[in-house]
Amino acid sequence: MKTTLTILTVIVLNVLAGCEPTARKEQLSSEGKELLTVDFQEGQTLQYKFVSSREISVDMDSTKKASKQGKHTADKSIESMEMVVTYTPIEIDPYGLTTIKATCESVKVKRSKGSQRDAVEHLAGKTFTLAIGPTGRIEDYSQLDELIKEIGKKAFLPDTGRGRIKEPDMICDFVASQWFLWDSVSSIEKPSEGVGVGQSWKSKLSVPAPMVMRKARDVTYRLDEIRRSEKGRLAVISSVYSPADSVPHSWPIPYSGRFQIAQMFGLLRGYKILDLKGRGEELFNIDAGRIEQYNQQYQMQLKASLPLPLSGVDPRITIKQNLTMKLLE
How are beta strands 269-285 and 290-305 bridged, if at all? Predict the structure, then answer.
């Protein structure tokens, strides 16, 4: 009888622990590790503001000759995208897949050069669903992939008989904000074991850029500290970036087929990353199971080529990139 009662007690405790994710996290915390899971609550909509901005400098003169004013000059420009997206849970399963509906409330693009409407601004009012596991891994992103391809078509000029011509766009910045939103959590190798302060793990992130290229950056995440706040315990996750040797085949591609590119980057090709350095910081609310904010900054040096080589011309490009996200009240 005593043995039977003991077994029943263990079963009841296990069921209760399974019904209280917060209690489970506290237990792991006492063992020196934190369980970082993405949780959604029924009826609760989360709204985030995303900003992607970059400074671009294109230097065509490899000899660094001085201009008439006595200073070497390069072509410089700035572009930015500001977007607000809401996430509403449709079906919640804390131990399986949770389906959420994402709505692009607003999208605005600004450029220091050119005033045409950016294709990504057509995202305003668009919706898509995602199926997300407890670790933050996106298990079904088919609607997001379709939306990215749909918006990619908006980046082309109407048919003028000169072939397909693509205008500048910031679609890859949209991809960077949505496809990798929970990457810091979903990339943990053994999520069920939790993460301890000082522990590091690796992943890959995309490299949004003004030109068409398929590049990635290696990222090393590190749990720096657990910070107390009125909203719950915050995991402070730092990140360091470097050039990646390869790009996962599963990452989305907005465009297909043959086309020409308008403006400056239609003249250049063969982009090669010479250097990429940067770092970031993210605040993840452990108790609420959600990302509160992040800031990613890096500088990238690239080398490009012309269709026909010219003496003294060796295009070099410098991009200073800043990606931020913040949970709105």
Answer: antiparallel
